[in-house]
Amino acid sequence: MFKSFGFYHSQNYSKLLIVLSMFFTSFVFNNCLAFEVKSSKEIASKVRTGQVIKSTKLLKQPSYQSEISGAVTANESININSRKRSWYFISTNSVPQTAPQAGQVSGWVSMLNVRFVATAKREGELGIESLFSRVTNDSLPTVSTGVRGFDENDLKNSKADLKQLLLLNAYIVSTEAAARFAQQGKLQTNKINVKED
Amino acid sequence: MKALLNPVYLIIVFLCLVLLGCKSTSLKLGNLDVGKLVEQGVNVFNAHNINQEQEVQFGENMSAVLLGTRPLYENKEINVYVNKVGMWLAQNSSRPNLPWQFGVINSSAINAFAAPGGFVFITSGMLMQLENEAQLAAVLAHEISHITEKHHLNAIKEEANRSAVTETLFISAQAYQDNTNGSSKEQEYQAWAKKVTGMAQELYVKGLNKEDEFMADQYGIRLLAKSGYDAFAYIDNLQVIAAIAADDSALALLYKTHPTPVQRLKSLSEQVDKLADSEGLLLSNRFVQMMN
Q1: Are B85 and A184 within 8 A, CB to CB?
Q2: Cα torsion angle, B255, B256, B259, B262, sign
Q3: What's the rounded Cα separation, in Å, for the pair B65 and B91?
Q4: Is B92 within the bounds of a domain?
Q5: Which domain holds residue B127?
Q6: Longest alpha-carbon distance in chain A
Q7: How far is CA A178 from CA B22, B60, B100, B190, B280, in A?
Q8: How many angstroms separate the CA atoms of B277 and A190, rounded?
Q9: Which of A94, B10, B19, B51 lies 20 to 30 A from A171 at CA?
Q10: Min Cα–Cα distance to chain B from A64, Å
């Protein structure tokens, strides 16, 4: 019995080892993958929900010359999965997903045709509109009372603070320091005319 | 040369000199040369005539008013970081030699400000909305463009033309002369600074005109691209702001003084097409590390 138990035990032990090794492999893989995702953050951004502002064709590539992969209608709910230059890769699904599922329509659209879903007012902000999320419109706010931050009354009553100017002065960086900083970030000046002459 | 010796021309030049002489010497209150003060005021409000030193002094006073509303965010590393991003952008702007200074104002309001002479401010509330360095650079590039194009000085000049500001300067100078014991030079400066304070308050509450804001967007997105950043982070920013509840009080002043983000996005469509092939960096990791 002991032997049979030992045999049985060693069988279980082997199974346990297999499970543990699978778990370990999975753990390592997931962590490596997580690292990959983190390091490619320059390209991928967090998934947002939104709408297109007019019926738009979806493209297979982020280019106007690309083939069409589908279409999305105005006000249809979309996920904005990633961006490449001025193009968003979107999919039609109300639940945020990082990869399109079967039945989903996905493709590239110009980012100017997209609006994010408006967030509810933040904590401390009151108003019936905060109960609903809605897509941004072009209306100006009617409420202008500043409970935090500062508003026009604060500005009108402001007294010039020269001590703060001295503090500001202490944070100045040299042009050389800024150039080194740019170099560290691999930023390079491009041949673009700001005023287009 | 003969034309310059023409008697009619000489008479005109003589009359001009007499008139200029009257303007700077005839207005005196006690020891205070108010004529000079008024003349200085006129020069200040004529944005194209003032020199860089005067412009910076003007900006300092306007900045002091802003900082009188809320102080700087007390974190040297973040303020220096914002200065490095801003200075790099400024070196790629049309006025790299201004004494550029950047600061984070400790306020949950979502906004950014500029003052003549190279002063740029972003609120900590705005900073919290951003995800990467390119988005920070986008905010700063917009404000830098206001300064390179002298939008605030031009706005003050227009306001001065409407409200006979020289007269107001004259009155305030007289009041200082009557009520203070400081030296005349000090009084001149105080009167001038007081007037600038009033104008700064009015300007930051009222905002610039929409055309100037749209222009700062056009130049701002191109400055971002020129400086090596991802130009479309500029669009990201406007879309993020557009998605914040419009009646959130943190946005009240921004909305009061700027076109809506949707209007600004529409006005940028041409630039987005022109910069379609532009590649640039977001520098998310450097930004996140600095903010954590």
Answers
A1: no
A2: positive
A3: 26
A4: yes
A5: 52-149+212-291
A6: 93
A7: 49, 22, 12, 35, 18
A8: 12
A9: B51
A10: 10
Whether B154 maps to a domain, the answer reads no
> Which residues on chain A are in Cβ contact (under 8 Å) with B278?
85, 190, 192
B65 close to A (CB below 8 A): yes
Q: A140-162, pLDDT tens digit by residue?
A: 333 333 334 677 788 888 888 88
Instruction: State pLDDT tens for residues A9-28.
Output: 455 556 655 555 554 444 44
What would the two tokens of residue B250 be?
Answer: 């943190």
**CB contact set of A123 (below 8 Å; sequence gap of 6+):** none
B269 touches chain A (CB under 8 A): yes
Q: Do the chains contact at A175 and B63, CB–CB below 8 Å?
A: no
Q: How far is CA B158 from CA B117, B232, B237, B267, in A?
A: 19, 34, 31, 25
Residues of A within 8 A of B88 (CB-CB) are 178-179, 181-182, 187
- Asked whether residue B13 is domain-assigned, the answer is no
Count of domains for chain B: 1
Half-sphere exposure of B72 (CA within 13 A, CB side): 27
The model's pLDDT over B54-93, given as tens digits with 9 standing for 90+, comes to 888 888 888 988 998 899 999 999 999 999 999 999 999 9
Tokens read off for B79: 């303020």
Q: How far apart are CA A116 and CA A164, in angstroms?
A: 38
Please indicate, yes or no, whether the overall pTM of this predicted structure exceeds 0.80.
Answer: no
DSSP assignment, residue B104? E
ipTM value: 0.78
Contact predicate B61/A158, CB 8 Å: no
Beta bridge partners of B289: none
